[in-house]
Structures are given as C-alpha cells and as structure tokens.
Amino acid sequence: MNLLKNLDTLRRFDSFSKTIEDFRVKTSGGGLVTLLSVWCMGVLFYAEVKDFMTPGITEDLFVDTSRGPKLRINLDIVMPTISCSFLSLDAMDSAGEHHLHIDHNIYKRRLDLMGQPLEDPQKEDLQTSTSVKSSTEAPNITKSVELKNDTCGSCYGAPKEIIKCCNTCEDVREAYRIMQWKFPDPDQVEQCKNDQSNLAAKGAFKEGCQIYGYLEVNRVGGSFHIAPGRSYLIDHVHVHDVQPFSASSFNTTHTIRHLSFGLNIQGKTNPIDGIYVTTPDGATMFQYYIKIVPTTYVRRDGSVLQTNQFSVTKHQKVVTMGHGESGMPGVFFNYELSPMMVKYTEKEKPLGHFLVNLCAIIGGIYTVASIIDGILYHSYRAIQQKIEIGKIS
C-alpha cells in the first residue's frame, strides 16, 4: 500500500502527461513536418560528426629563438621566351654576399615557345660569381687570329699575366670580363666562330626554360634571382654579362608555378602559386619582397612539422634605356624572416561537448517542429470550421 501511495505522489510531478491513443489525431501536415525534421536532424548530425572528427587548432605567437636548421626554398618557375643557356640562378644573403656551399637540387628543362619540353631536365650547377678588377678600354679587333692546335691563342690585348692563352671563346670572354671590356662581335673572334656558346646565342630567344627544384640556405635574410647572362663580381658588385645582347633584348615574362619555404603541409596555400606575369613594355625587372613567418605545426599524435608562411609584395620597372630606369631584367626574390613564430597545435574536441550538441539538435528541431505543426493544425481547423458554417465558399 505504501508503494502505491508513493507512486501516486510521484504521478503529480509528471511533466510528460499522456494522451489516450484514441484521442490522438494524425494529419498529413504533421507527417510532412516529421519527415522534414528527420532530414534536418540527419544533415546536422553529419555536420556535427564531421566537425567532431576534425581536430581543433589553437594558435600561439611567440619570439623565434630557434637556431641551426636550414631554410629550404622550393621553386618552379618558367621563362617562356629565354633559353636555358642564357639564364642563371644566383642566391645571396642580405649583405649581398653570395651563399657558399649551398645544398641544392635545381634542374633546367628546355621548352619550346609553346611551353612543351624539348628534352629531359639537366641539373644546374650553382657556382660562385667570378671576381674581376677594373681596367681600361678594350682594344679594337680588326682582324681574326687563326688558331692552331700547337699555338697559344690570342687574348686580343688582355695582359699575359691575366690569362696566358685564350684557346676557346670562353677564355676570350673571361679575359674581357676581367678587364671590364665590352665583348666584340663573336664573328670577329676566331675562337668564337664555331663555338657552341656562339651557336647557342643565335637560339637565345627561340626557346623557353623551366627552372625547378629546391635550395637550402642559412636561416638569414637574403635573395635569389633568375636573370639572363652569366653572373660575376666587379668590385664586390653583382652583375650579369649578357653579351652579345643588350639587357633590353630580354623579355622577362614568367610564370611562377610554385614557390614555398620549408616543408609543404596539406591544405597550405602559397600566395603566388600559378601566377603569370607578362612584360608588354620590354625588358622588365620584377622584384618580389617576401616576409617569411616561421611556423610550427604540432599534430595530435605529437609529431612536429617545421614550415613557413609568407606574404608577398610585387614591384616591377622597365629597365630599357628609353625609360631611363637602371637595373637588370629578371625575376628577383628578396626575403626576410620575421622574428616572431606561429605555432599551431591540433587538439581533440571533448566528447561531452559533442554529445551536448547532439542533444541540442534533437531538442531544438523537435521543439520548432512541434510549434510549426501546431500552427498548421490549428490554422487548418479554423479554416475548416469557417467553411462548415458557410462563411467561406
């Protein structure tokens, strides 16, 4: 008896009063609302599960105190109107000094003017620039010097203490670089008449070139560039020898297929990947100023990835004589490392939060669906009653 009495007491607290099945009314409108509610629940359930499976990411910013690791530069750049034999890649630090002992894996691939490969890529040998001293004007070459296998080729006025013999076209070019003389017409130099470099010059603008691979340099600010001509130093100034052409002869239209710093992380986008830049005004110097932010990515399993994010500002100027601008045609990248580091950490989302969201979806949709069903049912009943008393025909 006491148990039944206690149950009667509990019945007064029942917030979920029951209706006898005979008094329940099922309508087609209610069925439609139920189907829509189930569909909405399914969509929201899927979105919630997907969000729960995706790790949460926290972001921290702090001063970069790391030392030691190299900076990896990944690049893939196409120069569609300059042959590979007339392009060089140079890397320098922020003081203008050439990087020495660079670990690299850079390749050049010859392309036709339509961008199709002509042969297998060739590995590029990055060399330090040749240092030369200033001198006087070059002598005039009025007649060719005939070479024999057992003779010492003429250097056309260059002192013997500089280069004793010039038996190849490259020897003559090197002598003229050292003396800072303008190189004459190759057809006037006996060593250059049948030289491969002279023959390559005739096809300098009949091919394109793809330069791709990676460099590993010290983690300091610096620059690298792709420019026509062979690089060397004059009084510690970096210059390019583009003979027998002038700098204004080169069209530096280019495509940056890819440029990144450090390891590639899935989903990371790089700001200038895929851009195509044309030069309608002739020889142009393109300068990309890059701000690199070191980035650490910590995964849920504890593994750490070191990479970099960066932003880019582009500047260009025409360097032909008619525009009065100084500079050298080419594509120049100047990069600077930020003293701050960003750290992204993956974290699992709590299961309790996931379950609470599922309950909120069920309760919210059920409540809204009940309100909509009630409005539809009572509206239908009101209209039906008015029809029955003849107020609406």
UniProtKB/TrEMBL annotation:
Residues 155-373 form the Endoplasmic reticulum vesicle transporter C-terminal domain. Residues 119-138 are annotated as: Disordered. It is found in: Endoplasmic reticulum-Golgi intermediate compartment membrane; Golgi apparatus, cis-Golgi network membrane. Keywords: Membrane, Transmembrane, Transmembrane helix. GO terms for cellular component: COPII-coated ER to Golgi transport vesicle; endoplasmic reticulum membrane; endoplasmic reticulum-Golgi intermediate compartment membrane; Golgi membrane. Residues 10-99 form the Endoplasmic reticulum vesicle transporter N-terminal domain. The keyword Amino-acid biosynthesis does not apply. Its main location: endoplasmic reticulum. Pfam families: COPIIcoated_ERV (PF07970), ERGIC_N (PF13850). GO terms for biological process: endoplasmic reticulum to Golgi vesicle-mediated transport; retrograde vesicle-mediated transport, Golgi to endoplasmic reticulum. The chain crosses the membrane at residues 351-372. Residues 127-138 have a biased composition (Polar residues). It comes from the Eukaryota. The keyword Protease does not apply. It is a multi-pass membrane protein. Belongs to the ERGIC family. This is Endoplasmic reticulum-Golgi intermediate compartment protein 3. It comes from Frankliniella occidentalis. The lineage of its organism: Eukaryota, Metazoa, Ecdysozoa, Arthropoda, Hexapoda. The gene is LOC113209478.
